[in-house]
Each structure stands twice: as C-alpha cells, then as structure tokens.
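re: ur question from yesterday

yeah so i grabbed the chain u mentioned. its 527 aa long if i counted rite. heres the sequnce exactly as i have it in my notes:
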Amino acid sequence: MIRNDSQQDQDIAPSSQAQASAPLTTRQGHPIHDNQNSRTVGNRGPMTLENYQFLEKLSHFDRERIPERVVHARGAGAHGIFEATGKVGDEPISRYTRAKLFQEAGKQTPVFVRFSTVGHGTHSPETLRDPRGFAVKFYTEDGNWDLVGNNLKIFFIRDALKFPDLIHSQKPSPTTNIQSQERIFDFFSGSPEALHMITLLYSPWGIPATYRHMQGSGVNTYKWYNDQGEGVLVKYHWEPKQGVRNLTQAEADQVQSTNFNHATQDLHDAIERGDYPQWDLFVQIMEDGEHPELDFDPLDDTKIWPREQFPWRHVGTMTLNRNPENVFAETEQAAFGTGVLVDGLDFSDDKMLQGRTFSYSDTQRYRVGPNYLQLPINSPRCQVASNQRDGQMAYRVDTFEGQDARVNYEPSLLSGPKEAPREHAPHTPYVEGKLVREPIDRPNDFGQARMQYRNFADWERDELISNLSGALAGVDKRIQDKMIEYFTAADADYGKRVAEGIQAKEAAMKEEEMAAPTYGREASSLY
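ran it thru and got these structure tokens back, copy pasting raw so excuse formatting
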C-alpha cells in the first residue's frame, strides 16, 4: 500500500460539509441494528445458518468482480510435494489426528500452491504493502485438503461480518478509483482489533522480498481429531528453509522501478533452474476449550499463540518443483476453500473461519463456475462418486466404474453410491448457548501489538513509524487522533513517535506543494 501524496482521495467531505447519515439497511430495506457481530451460539460461536444479514452481505460481496478475484487477484503458482514426518514433534501424530497424509514418515502427497497479494488487481506491482496469500491444495487419497492462509499470522478483524467493509476500505475509492490512506484508516479508526495487524503490515514484514522467502500461516484456529474422536485446537505455520527476507519501503520502491513482476519471476526462475524452494510445516496444539488462564481468546484470529507456551512442532516439509504449463488453466483457475478438509481435520468455532468457509467456495462457484471442481487443477486425485450433476460447463459425470448413470440420487436399491462405512469414532463437540450478537469477552486489542512493537529491532521500529506517519499525514485530523490514541494505548513511545512523524511529514508535504513539481521533460514538436 504505497502512498502517493499527489493522488490523495478527496471524496470524504470535511466536517463542515458533512451530511446526515441514513440508517444502515439490508438490500431489502431492513434496518441493521448491529453491523459488528454475527448471530452466534454464545459470543464465541459457532455461527448459525439462518444468519440472513451475514449471508446476504457476504454472498453479494463474493459476486462483486468479474472475472478477477475480489481479493488475491495477483498470484503465482507452482506444483510440488509434501512429505510427512509421521510425528508431531517427538510424538506419534496419530495421538492427535487420523488424517492419512500425516501418518507415515516419508509419505508424499502432491500439492499445488498459489501465492498472491491480497488487495490489488491482477497486474498490480508485487512490491505493494499488502498481506500475501499462501494457499496450499493437498491432493490426498481421501480427497483434497486446502490450507488457505496468509504470510502474516493474524488478521485485521475477528468477525467475518466485517470482511466486505474491510476490503471496501482497502480498495480504490468508488468516486476517484484511487486507493486512499484516509479511507483505509477511517475503517481502522473504528476497528481497534486491527492494531496488531497494522503494526506488522506497516513494518518491513508488510513487504516480503519474494514468495520464496516468506512465511505462511493458516491464520485461523482449526481442529485435529484422532481415532477416538478426541479433538484439539491447532494452528498451522509454514517456515521457509530459504530464510525470511523482507523489503523496506525504499527497497521496494527501487525494485518496483524496474520490475513489478519480481516475485512471480523469482519463483518461476528458481524452479526452472532446479533451486526448488522448501517450507517446513509446523503446528501449535492446544487443548480444546475456552482457556480462561490466557489473556486472549484462542479462537481470536487477531492474536498469536505464544511459542513459549505452545511450541511449534514439525510435521512435514513441502517442496515446489514444477511450474505451471498454463498459468490461466492452473494458477488462475485454482480454487481454494477453508471448508475443504479431510477426515481427521475439522473446524473450530472461530467466527472468522466459519465465515470464510461459506465465502471461499461460494465465490469460486461464481468466479469459475458451478463445476469448478471438474477442472484438472481442482479435481481430487481419488475416485469421486457424487450425485451432484449438470450445471454450467459440466463435462464429466462423477460416477464410479460400473455405476448405472441413470441413478443420480441416494438412497437407491437399484444402483448408485452408498454411504461410506464409518471406521472410527466421529468428533462430536458439545455446543450450547443463547443466540446473541456480542463481541468476545477477551478482546485485548492492544496487548500483542505492544509486545510486537517492543520486540522489533530499532531499524524495524524506525521503518514502522516512517511508514505509518507517511500513510496518516494529510488524512482527516479525527482519524489521526483516533489512531494515535490506539498506538499510545499499545505503547506510549509508539503513539508519541507516530504523532511527531505525522507533524514532520505534513510539514514536508507543504514544502513539496510550494515547489509544484512538473513531471516529464518538454517534448519537441511533432512533425
């Protein structure tokens, strides 16, 4: 998110010109009394299917772009393999999960990975300040598993109801088609839970040097369960064996001046020359429950689980060793979803995860089509026996060998697929509570932002302050004040330095305005 001070969005009127706001409604005209919290069983979730406001909001949001992805439009992909250790740390992995791809040491599973920038368009520079997507499709013997995450280990919001608002604020203004730091921080000023992510995004971690030198994370909390149906909470982390490298804003500007495809080119060229990038997959495991001893909710995706309490445990290594033969057919038509899990893996009650699980597959059906799973890049590598037929672009019938194709329903005494026999105890978590719209009990919006700020090296803090000061200089004073309030709540030095930085940047901006630069050189007359 590189600021261009000469192109600041002017579509937000100053307070003297402000007009009275209309009440917020659904597209059916129903008044919305709570646009902050989904309807859930208790304030921790899970969400309920009759969340009409949420479903209408997200399903419309998923259909806002044709044919480009609404988010993660700019991406690069590669094929490879995942090799399991057969253990979680030093313990047999079967203690925690029965997912077959993890059970045997040396077991290899084909994968396809798509890296991406989040907020910008298909041909945008890969040097922009933005989270990076890190999505892995495992073609397992039990069907596909998609581990869909980002490079940073947290997110801006903890309730998926706010996702369209977040992305709308990050996208270009609907009136100027220019991305505006004022719009971005206008949203953030009402979202204190975003401060941890802001602190990372505006630090050097906000611009990875390449896709090969980038961490990955599942971001959300998932579950594993074993043969007895016993479940634990789990977080996923990809660690690059090439090391982690990030760019300062000045370095990113220099790269962008000569190559706005640098990350895609770096990944492609490394694989072509046989320098195959690798990532170790680590997990953190926590006993399922509310964990009142923690000062945060373990389902809150704005938080990191401390490694000293929940150590990283190695479960396998991924190697990318083949480039796509056709970028559109593979990288662009690759379709991921957080609901794509195999036996032994499950959802937690994480409200953000549950919202993503609806939205991801729904947007793929819209973007690629209802039969997107028939495309080779998305198709499972195991037998598919489904009674779901027809629809736009259907070209294959998912029937097993010898099945009577006339039977496309179940149950049937004549033919057709039968319910799979259950080999192990199911995972059956207990859920009860009142249906409410409430924030979680332990938001702790500033605690981990404080730790992250204090943990940065001096040069990382300097870069963070410079980037935030530049982004906030010139925006509405009310927004500046609210953000400085948040920075100060995290750390007094943090708030003080950003406030001073804004003043210095604004003074420099006034000097630049007086200079009135002219771009380009005067051309000679055309003949």
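noticed a couple things. Residues 33-384 form a domain with the Catalase HpII,  Chain A, domain 1 fold (CATH 2.40.180.10). also The CA atoms of residues 374 and 516 lie 57 Å apart.
anyway ttyl
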